[in-house]
Amino acid sequence: MENNKKYVWEDVIHTIKKLDPKKLEVVKATLPIVLEHGEAITTRFYQRMFENHPELRNVFNQTHQRTGHQPKALANAVYAAAAHIEDMSGIMPALERIGQKHRSLQIKPEQYPIVGENLLAAIKETLGDAATDEILDAWADAYEVISDVFIRMEDVLYKTSENQPGGWAGFKDFVIDRKVQESEVITSFYLKPKDGARLPSYLPGQYITIKVDLPQEEYTHVRQYSLSDRPGLEYFRISVKREDSLEEGDPAGIVSTSLHNVYQEEDILPITSPAGDFYLDVNSEEPVVLISGGVGLTPMMSMLNTIIEKQPSRKVTYIHAAMNGKVHAFREHVKDVAATHDNVRSYVIYQTPTDEDRQEHRFDKEGYITLDWLKETLPSNQAQFYFCGPTPFMKAVNKALKEWGVPQEHIHYEFFGSAGDLES
């Protein structure tokens, strides 16, 4: 099993190359400038890197480039790492999250110098004369320290992934054994290894990376999807929402629509072994509250199915929010689980329920999740809370939990795609 706690963080910290004190002071002094121009720098960085190394378009999600999500995420990561460069243990969770993503995407040590070269050039182009040779030299050393941390950390993750029972290196071919429509917009894909080998275990909530090559596309597309069933089965399951075009000029999701409309049973999908830092603590018996919005239910399904199979006495409350019953996946499964397991309670919130939803009494609340409703519904705030869904939904949940006094260490969440900020 790949567990990001297996490597000893202190070993990484103690082997970091120390910056020259003078260069460290330069980095500290220029942090506000980097923060102010961070998105402009990282946007230009990606432009330069893809111009100079177009093959890297096969690695990075181009949709996140167009929306600006990835440049913003990179800017935040660079700033945070530089701000904590003397002791990165303070941002260990963020670094672990990035390292897990890199391992899943197969980012390799030889790619870090490419990133560094183009990042420094982007700083120079963006800041102009303000980026003196002294500043660029100091930031070059800072980048070397930061990249060394990631390379060391990811080396352990690669070795752990490959050497675990059933593990493998790189991408491995899987066969789509079954394709099941779960709602009008979500379809599940049951994946089995083409070579018939055993599957590695994983932590409920983790994801895999799939690789899709389409004849009409110049570059390969890679996407990460949460595993939507529990570990220990003969298959991996992902449940994918079809991202249709919502308005003119807003392109449909290339990978999700291809999976829905093009890929069929018996087709091949190359994938990497499971990764991710968002997962259920299976060593705890504390009560759990799972809260999902839309397709954010996928990691929650893995957690819920794990609890009912492995922890039948652990109390779990599952709250799911969706537009209506037409797009609500796994509704009957969760309903059946709650009806047949004394430790499980479930609630459904529909924003705009259909007439059929009303007639069939398919939901418990109309509208949105609120703090008052959580207080009325849950026995207390003494639980481990896991949530996932669209960013506005997660911001609302996060705000409600904090106002209710839930400790930060009991709040766990995951962004789909580039990491964002729930506090803004």
From TrEMBL:
Record Gene3D superfamilies: Globins, Nucleotide-binding domain of ferredoxin-NADP reductase (FNR) module, Translation factors
EC numbers: 1.14.12.17
Residues marked Involved in heme-bound ligand stabilization and O-O bond activation (site): 46
Recorded superkingdom: Bacteria
UniProt: heme b binding residues: 102
Gene Ontology molecular function: FAD binding; heme binding; metal ion binding; nitric oxide dioxygenase NAD(P)H activity; oxygen binding; oxygen carrier activity
Domain spans labelled Globin: 18-155
Enzymatic class: oxidoreductase
UniProt-annotated catalytic positions: 112, 154
Cofactor note: Binds 1 FAD per subunit. Binds 1 heme b (iron(II)-protoporphyrin IX) group per subunit.
Requisite cofactors: FAD; heme b
HAMAP family xref list: Hmp
Domain notes for this protein: Consists of two distinct domains; an N-terminal heme-containing oxygen-binding domain and a C-terminal reductase domain with binding sites for FAD and NAD(P)H.
Name of this protein: Flavohemoprotein
Organism of provenance: Ectobacillus ponti
